[in-house]
Amino acid sequence: YCLYPEMYLASLMRVLADFPSARRFVVLGIRSIGTSLAGLVAGALRASGLCGTVETVRPRGHPFHRYVALGPAIQKRLRDAAAAGVRFIVVDEGPGLTCSSFLSVATCLSGLGVAEDEILFLSSWQGAPRVLAPEATRQRWRRLRGYHPSAFDAFAGWRPLVPSVRRRGTGGGGGWSPGGARRGAGGGR
Fold first, then answer.
1. Which single residue of 5, 20, 48, 114 could bond 109 by disulfide (Cβ 3.0 to 4.6 Å)?
2. What is the pLDDT of residues 129-149, one digit of tens each?
3. Residue-wise pLDDT tens digits, 148-170
4. Cβ atoms 51, 85 nearer than 8 A
5. Which residues contact 145 (CB under 8 A, 6 or more apart)?
């Protein structure tokens, strides 16, 4: 899927540039990959001197009509965060055909008192609800704010490293070689 954790860090830098006065965030990871990525994003927030807490959710239901059901404890934490003016970053691999996982989280957060403009999506690609999504869903998606850099943007600062990795990992055949990568990973041969 061309998903690199660095893409989420690049997206987070854009969020912080767009909201320079924001100091506190709740990072909601969707399912398993979102859980790992939420930890990465929250860690980057903390490393930047900001407050980032992690919560995880697992949307349920038909893939085109997801919903989120939360227990009382997490509902209270999210309501309290919303009342305190915290921004919410929702992290997942990327929107599917109907964006129903992202939108189910937005619906849940809205039900807890979070304004739509406080909800930000980080994904690995742009995506948009397709033909299978109702028009109301497509309109809502356009109102919400998402961040999704290209892999090129995420690795722009890594360009000097790429030739070195290629040299060590080619094995002479022009492709990536696990043995070559292992030799280079320790800092030398």
1. 114
2. 877 788 888 899 899 999 998
3. 987 677 777 655 544 444 444 44
4. no
5. 117, 119, 120, 121
Q: What's residue 159's pLDDT?
A: 52
Query: Smallest Cα–Cα separation from 90: which of 15, 149, 165?
Result: 15
Q: What is the mean pLDDT of residues 39-59?
A: 96
Q: Which of 73, 132, 74 is nearest to 103 (CA)?
A: 132
59 within 8 A of 30, measured Cβ to Cβ: yes
d(CA 129, CA 139): 9
Token pair, residue 64, equals 């085109």
Amino acid letter, residue 105:
V
Query: What pLDDT was estimated at residue 157?
Result: 62
Q: Classify residue 9 by its DSSP letter.
A: H
Structure tokens at 115: 């304004």
Cα 23 to Cα 38: distance, rounded to the nearest angstrom:
17
So what's the pLDDT on residue 56?
Answer: 97
HSE (CB half, 13 Å, CA atoms) of 77?
13
Dig out the tokens for 40 from the structure: 């990465």
Global model pTM greater than 0.85: no
Are 89 and 145 in contact by the 8 Å Cβ rule? The answer is no
Residue with structure tokens 């909201």?
A: 19
